[in-house]
Structure formats: structure tokens, C-alpha cells
Amino acid sequence: MEFDTGNRPDQSGSGDSGGGTGGGTDVRPPGMSASAGGEFDYRDPVQSFVATVRRLVLEPVAFFRSMNRQGDFVNPLLFSLICWEIAAVIGGFLGVLGSVVGLGARGVGEAIVSLFASLIITPIVAAIVLFVAAGIIHLLVILLARPVSTGFETTFRVIAYADVAILVTWIPILGALVGGVWYTVLSIFGVREAHQTSTGKAAVIVLVPVAVVVFILLVLALIVGAVIFGALNNM
Question: Which of 118, 48, 126, 50 is nearest to 89 (CA)?
Fold first, then answer.
């Protein structure tokens, strides 16, 4: 797995008269599959999905370094939604299986209904979360990294592909923790490579929203705890 944090070659397309690719923008000939460049392509869903996941696992830095900065929102969005759906299916199936063997708190019928409901609700929630997260991250990118040749779509593509980490969240106990750490690391690599900034700035850009969310959750937990404690004392 590649975790290069050193200096990277100039991706601005300057140099040889042969012509650079302009920082990873989509310059494929018409009709060429995105999967040929290692990214997801809905026209070749299975093979390109597997290839994209493999690259994000084994060579995440190289993936984001060569990722197209623009081209479309559809392919990265679909990649993200597929990751969410796979995790929802596996998690829901395990819930049904647990109910069948008597390990779950819910009945089998309730677990099955929950599984099908999650298949419908998950992509809607995932799409909303993706756009909101990308918007927040890109605002910080503008403030801290001040990109010259990249925009919101670049950040959106980074966050969408970082959602590959969702694939492990179904694992009991450690899944959410491992997925959260993996997602954070991928996002840092992606922001750094896609917007050609430093590792430190990329880390701040990604971690600040995480810290804010954690702080809000802690405050809400304290408020709920105080309300419950007060209610118990008044009983």
C-alpha cells in the first residue's frame, strides 16, 4: 500500500511539449471507459467497481493522484451509493440471521422489514450526506488550500471514493471504528493529492469537521444525560 507523504511531481501539465493532462482532468477519447483509468464506470459496473476498490485498498495515494478532477458527478456518486447499499445488505442480512438463531433483539419479521426499509432509505440518506460532507470539506479547501485549477467536483469525487470505507462498517463491534479511521485517512490522501496541497493542510481540512461533529454529539449526549438525570431525581 502506498503512503507517500513526500514531494510529488508537478501535475499542472507544464513541462514537455508533448502536453500534460492538466492535473488529472478527464482527457480520455470519446467512448473510452472510465474503468480504463482505474475509476468506477457505470457502463462496466462489476469490473470497474472491483478495480476501483482494489486500487483504493492497495494504492490509495496513486489512485487519488491519477483521479480525474472533473468529468461527471454520476460515476463517483453511484460508486458511493453502491458501497452504502452493500454495507446495508450485509448488515441487514446479519440482523435477520441473528433473529433466526435467537441472537437479535428483534423478531425475524421485524428484521426482514428493517432490511428492505434500509435498502430504500440508505441511498437517499447517503446521497444527502455525501453532498453535505463534500460541501463542508470544499469550503475548508477554499479557505486553506486555495486551489487554482480544481473545484467542488474534485472534492466531491474524493469524498465519494473515500466512501469505500463504508464497506467494512457492517463488521460487529469494530466495523464503525475501522471504517471511520479508513475514511478519514482516504479523505486526507484524496484532498492532498487532488488539490495538490500539503499533508498538514489536508489533515486540518478533513479533521476539523470531524472534531465539530464529535463535539456536537458530546454536547447532545450531555444534554440528554442531564435531562434524564433531572427527570429521575424528580420522580
Answer: 118
